[in-house]
Write a structure and sequence with these properties.
It is a single chain. It is built from 10 helices and 15 strands. The protein is an alpha+beta fold and about 425 residues long. The protein is globular, with a radius of gyration of 25 Å. It comes from Saonia flava.
């Protein structure tokens, strides 16, 4: 009995000492971050930070964490969350039904079909089996661009149009070695070897490629049912009829690539097109009509109803400046992901410091990555939210949002990295 009592007191003492040490570390970190954020560097911009220990449930530091910020591509964290809730392990590629010798099909928003990063042809191989193909292209019921997107970006690779049946990533890929190469070849006669201020005309599919250009150019093409039909016919090598609505009957679903492969590209390369199409895909599991807003509304009303600060969430990519999120709401999503997704999978989906993509040149540790996080950049804005691994073996969750600065983004990143390194080495 005496031995048991002594052991209990010893354990309690160790827990108290550990708690005191942890509390001391928290105070040191809080003081250090506070001093840095109060420096003249941050005085003319708007900064919000929250740092959380998911094991102890303690908020170690917070500053403007309940204020709304323009999140840029931090929006993709919410898109990832929605996708994990709405989509199965493999991507729904087509919905279809067969009557007699005809297959009737419609798209789900799957962005992988003949995309340069995946070159998936699951739908093509499947459709080729049928003598007659009838396609419904009009099940997407939103604008081709998201609310608040910059109109002048129409010719840039990161701003393809949204639709129900993407093909080739909804971009024309142009490059030159011995001769000019255009993918898809359907647009070959629409490419002029000229130097122009824009890569494409604003209202038609006429493209421009500077003859001396050495790198590959990707230019979004204008979507319409005729172009999609003819592109599909080109790869199928057979005629496709267009129908105004699907016939009555129970539809089946064809699946393509693994969902994680889309999530990783969205997060690592900050791929806006895939982010947008993931929300369209999500709506295909809720309804026969496709809209990204349907996915957003469903997640906010069913999964995130109790968020302390409800976001203004308007697109999947974060291209829109209409999006408004607080560091606390982003941290809430990150914490849910941390609690429900196996760590190996979660950390493979998030970009890691010093690795490829948007984090390649930043936040790299000596013995390996110590940050797994999503960055977000727009003019005068830079945000980073994710997971930080400390030298003591702790995992912390953070959201660090910077809006309205006039200094170079590199200088903002340098100061953020210094803060993260202090946290890593101290906690």
């Amino acid at each position: 009995m005496q031995f048991t009592r002594n052991l209990l007191f010893t354990l309690l003492g160790l827990l108290l000492l550990q708690g005191c040490a942890s509390s001391k570390k928290s105070r040191v970190i809080k003081k250090n971050i506070g001093l840095r954020l109060n420096s003249s560097f941050f005085e003319n911009s708007f900064t919000g930070v929250i740092l959380f220990d998911p094991l102890t449930k303690d908020t170690i530091f917070q500053h403007n964490s309940n204020k709304y910020f323009t999140p840029a591509s931090n929006t993709k964290i919410f898109t990832l969350y929605a996708s994990l809730k709405l989509l199965p392990d493999s991507i729904p590629s087509l919905k279809y039904l067969v009557k007699n010798d005809t297959i009737y099909a419609e798209g789900t928003g799957d962005p992988s079909l003949l995309h340069s990063s995946y070159n998936d042809s699951s739908s093509i191989k499947f459709l080729k089996q049928y003598k007659n193909i009838a396609f419904h292209f009009n099940n997407y019921e939103e604008e081709k661009y998201g609310p608040g997107w910059a109109w002048e970006d129409y010719d840039l690779y990161f701003s393809p149009e949204r639709n129900s049946f993407p093909i080739y990533g909804n971009v024309v890929t142009i490059f030159k070695n011995d001769s000019l190469h255009v993918i898809p070849s359907y647009f070959r006669n629409k490419v002029g070897e000229l130097k122009q201020p824009k890569n494409r005309k604003a209202f038609n599919n006429s493209f421009f490629f500077e003859p001396s250009r050495e790198d590959t150019l990707e230019v979004p093409f204008i979507i319409d049912s005729l172009h999609t039909k003819e592109l599909l016919e080109e790869v199928l090598q057979k005629k496709v009829s267009v129908i105004n609505r699907m016939p009555e009957g129970g539809k089946k679903t064809l699946y393509s690539i693994s969902s994680d492969s889309l999530y990783k590209r969205m997060m690592h390369q900050s791929d806006n097109f895939i982010a947008e199409q993931l929300l369209v895909l999500g709506s295909s599991t809720l309804s026969d009509t496709l809209t990204s807003s349907k996915s957003i509304e469903h997640i906010l009303e069913n999964e995130l109803l109790n968020l302390k600060q409800q976001p203004r969430w308007v697109d999947g990519s974060g291209l829109s400046r209409y999006n408004l999120f607080t560091p606390e709401s982003i941290l809430d999503i990150l914490n849910q992901l941390y609690s429900n997704v196996p760590k190996e999978r979660l950390y493979s989906i998030f970009p890691s410091g010093g690795d490829e993509g948007t984090m390649k040149d930043w936040y790299n540790g000596i013995h390996g990555p110590y940050i797994y996080a999503k960055s977000g950049s727009l003019g005068n804005n830079y945000c980073l939210s994710g997971y930080l691994l400390t030298n003591s073996g702790k995992t912390l969750i953070f959201s660090f949002m910077n809006n309205h600065f006039r200094k170079p983004t590199t200088e903002v990143k340098i100061r953020m990295q210094s803060i993260f390194e202090h946290i890593r080495d101290t906690y």
